[in-house]
Amino acid sequence: MATRQELSDFLASVERRAFKHAVYAVRDEEIALDLIQDSMLKLAERYGDKPAGELPLLFQRILQNAITDHFRRSKVRNAWVTLLSVLVPESEDGVERDPLEVLESAGEGGRSASAADEVERSQVLQVIEEEIQRLPPRQREAFLMRYWEDMDVAETAAAMGCSEGSVKTHCSRATHTLSAALRARGISP
């Protein structure tokens, strides 16, 4: 049984990666934050009494279900909005969203980098994020769980609800696709 502190530490450790994972999936930072918050609350309320070792898989499954539910609701909502939008005249003043600031990773070992290095680094990270977003959803999900969340094949398969072979296939395809796309854009390891 996880203590309050273990649960709190787990949620703090997974927060940033889960946010990026959700942003890649839904492509909207505000919605991603809502999904993360809801998933964390559900984990704490319903599964807070589980052993600490089970929390990562439970959280990943809860998050994936929340993302899937979001798309299901969006599909239904968009159908009604499309039908009803014909009846409402278009607004000339578009509503501007205030985008959330992108979480910056901590500096590398306290080493100060030049402005040019920082710009180049941010540009490379932006390209990598764009290419990850272009992956098919299942490949992106498997790739992020395996290499971002550092989950093993069995844990990833359990979280995704598929076989270990499928996870390996999705990861392999994602890796090859990302590698080719990054090479094509002039980025090499």
Q: How do the helices and strands line up, and which of them pair or pack?
A:
Layout: H1 4-26, H2 29-47, H3 55-85, H4 115-134, H5 137-148, H6 153-160, H7 164-184
Helix pairs in contact: 1-2, 1-3, 1-5, 2-3, 3-6, 4-7, 5-6, 5-7, 6-7
Can you offer a commentary on this structure?
- The protein is built from seven helices and no strands.
- It has helices spanning 4-26, 29-47, 55-85, 115-134, 137-148, 153-160, 164-184.
- Helix 1 (4-26) runs antiparallel to helix 2 (29-47), helix 5 (137-148) crosses helix 6 (153-160) and helix 5 packs across helix 7.
- The protein starts with a helix and ends in a 5-residue tail after the last helix.
- Mean pLDDT is 80; it is low at 80-92 and 95-110.
What ranges have pLDDT less than 50 throughout 5 or more consecutive residues?
Answer: 80-92, 95-110
Mean pLDDT: 80
Shape from CA axes? globular
What's the Cα radius of gyration?
19 Å
The count of helical stretches stands at: 7
Oligomer: single chain
The string of secondary-structure elements, in order, is HHHHHHH
Would you tell me the structural class of the helices and strands?
A: mainly alpha
Q: How many distinct beta strands?
A: 0
Main beta sheet strand tally, sense and closure: none
**End-to-end C-alpha gap:** 42 Å
Fill in the keyword field for this structure.
189 residues, mainly alpha, 7 helices, 71% helix, globular
